[in-house]
Write a structure and sequence with these properties.
alpha/beta; 18 helices; elongated
Length: 508
């Protein structure tokens, strides 16, 4: 996982590193990382014309990083041009670039060259950007590499100007910055890589941790064993799904299909009678679950039930439910159980507040988070949630004694003790009806499999593991969105069709 720090924390560590190693040494190291990514990006977009890289150069150290990087590209035989977008630039870096054979000219005199650039390096401001600072126009569809922070993005708040220089990739230095993950940032940074430059953060506690795909694979493999190959279906996870209503009959089917396509051992479904025939046709692998069977499944005295009374190892509650109905009867009994549960959609309107023995993960988007907080007596505006999402997600986690996943371009996962994880491995195409129901099916499956939770159904799943599996579900969901978008338009049904090959990518 990747630690995430505030700008203030990074500036403090950077100052210490400069005092130990010297500014020029750090700039050249940063430039080497930037140049390396530039070469990779050029290789990813081969063309018939020779590569031509233009650097947009600002007045400070960010511009110096860009000039040193251009110098290294020149030395590798790549044609470059530096466009000066300031009254002055870093003198030593400028001298090094021109010594390498590069040309430095005013932006006004060379901006027409941008049309022919294979790659544009944005080295204007970095951490020094301030709202209202001038930003140059770049041609539409330009291929852009941002040096540390895209120009026009506030690195502390994540708020971007309308004319921000949107990057295809960002190389950020020292450590991941919290402002690169929130509000507008995921829409303008492109793929982020961290060049740590050997900064020493040993005495600094990160604000949160970011889970990427590599970390997700490691987390999913944490409790797996070669013995898993010998498990029968009841040992591979039994998920109980409580979902659906006459108004929303499709939601239960989407979640059920998603769980089955993930590879669930057994899916038990508790849906209205009017929906059961639909589910029997669309998801024939599912097995109906009535009130009495739920009571049997919840019985603590029957640990190894098979067949119709098979013990449920996890629950998925909420997709398509009538949210106006209070949690009475068997739903209330499920909320009182100790089996892990993912609660989404209309289930969020009825999940009880306060202490609970059930390991839960709630999966609201920002509007639903506001509703959850309001139910708990916490008044908050949409703007306040957008400006400080981790803070308000922590309030909800504490109020409901649950892990909370706040869904969006950046996913925030917070436990009742305040610990948090962040996932940016998403796709804008996931903003489509039913996408959340698919995520519920994925997470329901992960929570039901004892080889993933590390419990094999015999112990309560700790919140830390709930958080990790929730992050993994968000990673899988994000990759699913991108894979589906590569083939055409995205719908929840098409996401589900692609689930088997995406799950295989993660080792299932």
């Amino acid at each position: 996982m990747i630690p995430v720090y505030s700008v203030a924390q990074i500036r403090a560590v950077e100052a210490q590193e400069i005092s130990k190693r010297g500014e020029a040494s750090l700039m050249k190291q940063a430039a080497a990382e930037l140049a390396s990514v530039a070469v990779t990006m050029l290789a990813d977009r081969p063309g018939t014309e020779p590569a031509f890289v233009i650097g947009l150069i600002g007045p400070g150290n960010n511009g110096g990083d860009g000039l040193y990087a251009l110098a290294q590209l020149q030395q590798q035989g790549i044609s470059t041009l530096a466009l000066q977008y300031a009254d002055q630039v870093h003198a030593d870096a400028s001298a090094a670039y021109q010594k390498a054979g590069g040309t430095l000219t005013d932006f006004a005199d060379g901006q027409n060259e941008l049309l022919g650039a294979s790659l544009i390096i944005d080295a204007l401001y970095g951490l020094g950007y301030r709202a209202g600072s001038p930003l140059p126009p770049v041609p539409a569809q330009s291929y852009v590499l941002a040096c540390d922070v895209p120009s026009g993005l506030n690195p502390e708040t994540g708020v971007a100007e309308d004319n921000v220089l949107r990057a295809d990739r960002t190389v950020t230095f020292g450590a991941m910055k919290s402002g690169l993950l929130t509000i507008d940032a995921p829409l303008v940074t492109g793929e982020i890589s961290v060049a740590d430059l050997d900064f020493d953060f040993s005495s600094v506690s990160p604000e949160t941790q970011m889970v990427d795909e590599a970390a997700a694979v490691e987390l999913l493999n944490q409790h797996r064993s070669w013995r898993d190959a010998g498990r029968h279906k009841y040992q591979r996870g039994v998920l109980g799904l409580i979902a659906g209503s006459d108004l929303y009959p499709g939601a239960a089917q989407l979640t059920a299909k998603a769980a089955v396509n993930c590879g669930i051992g057994l899916l038990r479904t508790h849906v209205p009678e009017s929906i059961q025939p639909l589910l029997a046709v669309s998801v024939p692998e599912s097995v109906p679950l009535d009130d009495q069977q739920i009571k049997e499944a919840l019985s603590s005295s029957r640990r190894h039930l098979h067949g119709k009374g098979a013990k449920i190892s996890a629950w998925a509650i909420g997709p398509g439910l009538d949210g106006r109905t209070p949690p009475t009867g068997v739903i209330a009994e499920v909320f009182a159980s100790r089996q892990p549960a993912v609660i989404d959609a209309s289930g969020l309107e009825v999940v009880p507040t306060g202490p609970s023995e059930q390991p839960r993960v709630l999966t609201p988007h920002s509007k639903e988070l506001r509703m959850l907080l309001n139910r708990a007596g916490v008044k908050v505006t949409p703007d306040e949630i957008a400006q400080d999402p981790i803070r308000w997600t922590r309030w909800a986690a504490l109020a409901y004694n649950a892990v909370v996943l706040l869904k969006g371009p950046t996913n925030y996962i917070v436990a009742p003790n305040g610990s948090s994880l962040v996932v940016t491995h998403s796709s804008p195409q996931l903003a489509t009806a039913g996408s959340g129901d698919v995520l519920t099916g994925i997470l329901g499956y992960l929570l039901s499999d004892g080889s993933l939770t590390g419990t094999q159904g015999l112990r309560t799943v700790p919140n830390r593991r709930i958080m990790e599996l929730t992050a993994c579900a968000a990673i899988i969901h994000g990759r699913l969105g991108r894979v589906t978008a590569e083939e055409g338009t995205v719908s929840a049904s098409r996401l589900i069709d692609n689930l088997p090959k995406v799950m295989k990518h993660f080792g299932f």
